[in-house]
Every structure is written in structure tokens, then in C-alpha cells.
Specification:
Layout: E1 2-12, E2 15-26, E3 31-35, H1 40-43, H2 45-55, E4 64-70, H3 82-92, H4 98-101, E5 104-106, E6 109-110, E7 116-117, H5 122-131, E8 136-140, H6 144-147, E9 154-158, H7 161-168, H8 198-202, H9 220-232, E10 236-239, H10 246-251, H11 262-275, E11 290-291, H12 299-303, E12 304-305, E13 311-312, H13 314-317, E14 322-325, H14 333-337, H15 340-345, E15 347-352, E16 355-360, E17 364-369, H16 388-395, H17 400-403, E18 408-411, H18 417-420, H19 430-447, H20 461-466, H21 476-483, H22 489-506, H23 513-524
Parallel strand pairs: 3-4, 5-8, 8-9, 10-17, 10-18, 11-14, 14-17
Antiparallel strand pairs: 1-2, 2-4, 6-7, 12-13, 15-16
Helix pairs in contact: 2-3, 9-19, 19-22, 22-23
């Protein structure tokens, strides 16, 4: 009788759970039993592993074989267990020393010819293994750079099972070709993308045309609202007729955000790795992601879900970045309202029959919508043909509770001919605005040093009112709106957060009356007194 064990990792949402892979060989009729709550794709690993071992030049043990995955109560799925199962079987058959693999984590899929193929979620799997105390990891060669992002872990990238067997037995390592002998391209990450448009949603590919805020003509008020949104991570709603520039403005918001910190980059990369959205050759996402799903997106596509264990949705793919919903009024009301919880908490909890998953979802939301079905209501020279009841129904698709969580609501007016034809180059570039955003964020970070918050949008209202109050009398207009029922208590807190961001951009030590009035203007659209210095009217 032979017995051996090694380790793999099961992904539960975007978090990994270390799994011990045990193999037991006993005399009897040749059979291969896999136990431990595997799903269909994992159950099929019996055939993949057997063919890969035989085609690697190693005889398959003709005994009763049982492979157990412990803990058995954790759901397990995917093809990432193939390498661990193969090595555990070979160690039980004494082809490999069982002691060589007992403390090694193995992640990867096996082709029938013995090649090691990439899988989803390598980064979160290696993070979970490191947290559990493992220090040696075997992964596909294509994923070695992703796994190496985890400090303190020794990573071995292999191209085939033959190479891995040679390393574990101290034999000469065969030189495997990078491509199959028939010249076909090596399957890699593009085949893993669960979202057909994943590369287009993230906005991370270097070949995409760079966008600059200088391309936007006019729209000074909307541009300043975009700057405030970037400086304080405030949610933003653009309303205006078609062709006014709402989408152009939203597409340029990620360029105003500072680069991700190391911790934030690892969080984003882990989510994109699980979703199969990491492009080849880019193991770490260093810039804030940009996700712009179509308005027909389903609940599972936006929030997360799917059959079996839930997978990350658009709100998680936009974690630490921007989620842009164009034509928001055309989205399903149920889908839009499902974002209310992650907008407040920064994470989303998806419950399915197979389990409950918690996935990160701290994103900057940008909504864009027309004022009515035809888009011409209230515009200059526009002849709106919509009935008043139709206009009301169209606007009601964005519910009050959802809009109450949006700090900035900006009307984007159609451009005048003089604005569109201006060639004097007065429009600021993305780099110039991003520099001011970075300075404002540095002021906020210094103010909240020693606390868990970095930007104004994260700070609870109680903390702002007690530890970081505005100047005396600055909140008079906002408090009057609260008394008249024109502003909710949450709305008052959000106005104060925006006022702090306006003050940071203006270099004020505390929000003034003008800062608060401008924040109220950005929320309600009603001008209150004078604007803050440097703010366009």
C-alpha cells in the first residue's frame, strides 16, 4: 500500500482555501476514485491526469486508487488541481519521494500530452498558500510572474509534467518547446477570460488609444466635477442630451486617479485573475481599472454570480477603479438597486445554493443618462416629443435611494458652436488635472493619518462633524435643507465630504461657506451664493 499527500488551493469567490490532496494505492481491481466534494470539471481530472502521466513516459499504477481532497466540506472546482493530483499519485506509486511534495503547493491544469496549462486565480491561490505557511509553489510557466508577486514564496514555473517530475527526482530537466510540435499557438490567458469583452472592460491594454481630458471641448462645470470626483472618490451622475460629452468625460476619469498602491494593486489583480481577465505579460494591475458594461447587463454580470460558485461581476472588476454605466436609465431597476449595498460597504455578498461569497467592490461609480426617452427635454432648441408622464417614468428608473448615494449630480449642457470651434488650447490636459488631484489626496491622507481612511468619501459623517468640523456657520444652508426635508441625513454627510474635497483642491484648511454651498450645488443643481475661489460658475 502506498500513500502520499501534497497541497492545492480551492478558490471560494476571490479567496483561496488550502486543500490537502491525498492519494492512496491499495491492491485490488484497477480503479480511480476522487472524493472531497469535486465539481464536474474537477471530476474529469481523473481522465486528464491518467493521460498526462502516461504520455509523460511514466506507467500508470494498476491498483485501486483513491484521491481525497481535504477538507471535504469545502466546494472544489476547476482544473487547477490536476498537477497536485498527478504528483500525489506518482508519490504514492513511489515514482516520486513523498517527502519532496508534502509541503509544496501545486496549481495548474494538465493537457493530455502532459503540458501544464494556466488556470484562473493563481495570485489569490498563492496568497492563501502563503498565509497558511507554505513557502514553495509550483505553477504553470505562464503564471510564474503572477505568483512571484507574493513575497516570501519560492515559485517554480514548469511547462510540462515531465519537467516537474525531473525537478522532484533530481534528474536532468528536459527542454520542452514553448509551442506544440504542430506549430499551433500555445493556449494561454485569452482562453480563460470568462468575460468575452474583459480586455475592453478593464481599459488596461497598452495598445488602446490613450485618452486625454484636453480632448473635451468646453464643459468647464462638468470637468471640475470630474476633478472633484477623482480627488475625493465621490460618485458622479452626468445628465444631459445625447452628444453633449458625458461618455467622453467618464472615459477620462481613470487617468485622473493616482496609481494603485501595492496593496490595492494586489487586490485588483486577484479579482481579475479569478475572472480570467489578466492579459498575457501583465501580471500586476498597477492602474485603476475601468469597467463599462452594457446597459443590458444582467444581475449576475454586474454584481457577480453565475452557475455553481459565484464569480466576480463588474462591481468587483472595477474594485479600486471606475465603474461607468452609460445609458443608466435603460438598465434594469433591480440591477441598479443591487448596487446600493456595495456603494455603502465596499464589498458585495452573493448568496447561492453552492455557497455564499464576499467579494471586494469599492469602486467609483459614474452614471450617465439622457433627460428623457428622446433625449431632448430641456435642451436649447430641442423639441421634446415625450409626454410628461413618460419623462417622469424615465427619470424614476434611477431610484431615490440609489441617487441619494451619488454625491455629484451634474447637468451636461450641449456645446455652443464657439466652444466646439475653440482652438486656443485652453483646455487642461489629464496630466495637469491629475497633479491637482494628487495634491488634494495628499492633503486628505495627511489629515486622516493614523485612521483607516485615506479619502474624504470614506470618512463617516460623525467623524467629520466632531473631529474635522467645517468653519463656523459654513453648514447653515445645508442644515436648512435638512430641516426642510430637501436633504437626508446621509445627504448632509455626503455634502460635507464633498465640501472637504473642494477645500482640499482650493488649499483651505477647513471647508468654508462657499465650499459647502458649491457642494450643495453639485448635489442639487441649485446655485447657493458665491462659488468657491477658482470654481467655474
Amino acid at each position: 500500500m502506498g500513500f502520499a499527500r501534497t497541497c492545492a488551493v480551492a478558490l471560494v469567490g476571490v479567496e483561496g482555501v488550502p486543500v490537502e490532496v491525498q492519494a492512496d494505492l491499495e491492491p485490488g481491481v484497477a480503479a480511480f476514485t476522487l472524493v472531497g466534494l469535486p465539481d464536474k470539471s474537477l471530476t474529469e481530472s481523473r481522465d486528464r491526469v491518467r493521460a498526462a502521466v502516461v504520455n509523460s513516459g511514466v506507467p500508470w499504477p494498476q491498483k485501486k486508487l483513491t484521491v481525497g481532497l481535504s477538507p471535504a466540506s469545502v466546494p472544489k472546482g476547476g482544473s487547477g488541481f490536476d498537477i497536485a493530483v498527478a504528483c500525489a499519485v506518482l508519490a504514492a506509486a513511489e515514482r516520486i519521494d513523498p517527502r519532496e511534495i508534502a509541503s509544496v503547493v501545486m496549481i495548474g491544469e494538465l493537457g493530455l500530452d502532459g503540458r501544464v496549462l494556466p488556470v484562473r486565480g493563481v495570485l489569490p491561490a498563492v496568497l492563501a498558500a502563503a498565509d497558511a505557511g507554505y513557502r514553495q509553489v509550483v505553477v504553470p510557466e505562464q503564471a510564474a510572474a503572477e505568483a512571484a508577486l507574493v513575497p516570501g514564496v519560492s515559485v517554480l514555473g514548469v511547462r510540462s509534467l515531465r519537467q516537474l517530475i525531473a525537478v522532484l527526482t533530481d534528474e536532468p530537466v528536459p527542454d520542452e518547446p514553448e509551442q506544440p510540435d504542430d506549430g499551433a499557438p500555445e493556449p494561454s490567458y485569452p482562453g480563460l477570460a470568462g468575460l468575452p469583452a474583459a480586455s475592453g472592460l478593464t481599459g488596461l491594454h497598452g495598445e488602446e488609444r490613450p485618452v486625454d481630458l484636453a480632448d473635451v471641448a468646453g464643459q468647464q462645470h462638468a470637468r471640475h466635477a470630474l476633478e472633484i470626483a477623482a480627488a475625493g472618490r465621490h460618485h458622479l451622475f452626468f445628465k444631459g442630451p445625447p452628444g453633449a460629452g458625458k461618455t467622453m468625460l467618464a472615459e477620462r476619469l481613470p487617468g485622473l486617479l493616482p496609481p494603485l498602491s501595492r496593496k490595492e494593486a494586489l487586490e485588483v489583480t486577484a479579482v481579475h485573475s479569478v475572472a480570467g481577465a489578466l492579459p498575457p505579460g501583465q501580471p500586476l494591475v498597477a492602474r485603476p481599472p475601468y469597467c463599462a458594461p452594457h446597459h443590458s447587463a444582467t444581475m449576475a454580470a454586474l454584481v457577480g454570480g453565475g452557475t455553481g460558485l459565484p464569480r466576480p461581476g463588474a462591481v468587483s472588476l472595477a474594485h479600486n477603479g471606475v465603474l461607468f454605466l452609460d445609458e443608466a436609465a435603460e438598465c434594469s431597476a433591480r440591477v441598479l438597486d443591487a448596487m446600493r449595498q456595495p456603494l455603502e460597504s465596499g464589498y458585495v455578498v452573493v448568496a447561492r445554493a453552492a455557497g455564499m461569497m464576499r467579494m471586494p467592490a469599492r469602486f467609483l461609480l459614474v452614471l450617465a443618462a439622457n433627460p428623457c426617452p428622446c433625449g431632448r427635454h430641456g435642451s436649447r432648441g430641442g423639441e421634446c416629443e415625450c409626454l410628461p408622464a413618460s419623462v417622469r417614468r424615465y427619470r424614476a428608473r434611477l431610484s431615490g435611494p440609489l441617487l441619494d448615494r451619488v454625491d455629484l449630480r451634474v447637468l451636461v449642457e450641449p456645446l455652443a458652436r464657439s466652444e466646439l470651434a475653440a482652438v486656443d488650447g485652453r483646455a487642461e490636459s489629464t496630466a495637469a488635472v491629475a497633479a491637482r488631484v494628487r495634491e488634494a489626496r495628499e492633503r486628505a491622507a495627511a489629515r486622516y493619518e493614523g485612521s483607516p481612511w485615506k479619502t474624504n468619501s470614506e470618512v463617516p459623517g460623525h467623524e467629520l462633524r466632531t473631529r474635522h468640523p467645517a468653519r463656523p456657520g459654513a453648514l447653515n444652508e445645508a442644515e436648512n435643507d435638512l430641516e426642510r426635508g430637501q436633504l437626508t441625513a446621509r445627504g448632509l454627510d455626503r455634502v460635507l465630504r464633498v465640501a472637504w474635497t473642494v477645500a482640499d483642491l482650493a488649499g483651505h484648511d477647513r471647508p468654508t461657506r462657499d465650499d459647502v454651498n458649491y457642494a450643495l450645488h453639485l448635489r442639487s443643481g441649485i446655485r447657493r451664493g458665491a462659488f468657491a475661489p477658482g470654481v467655474p460658475a
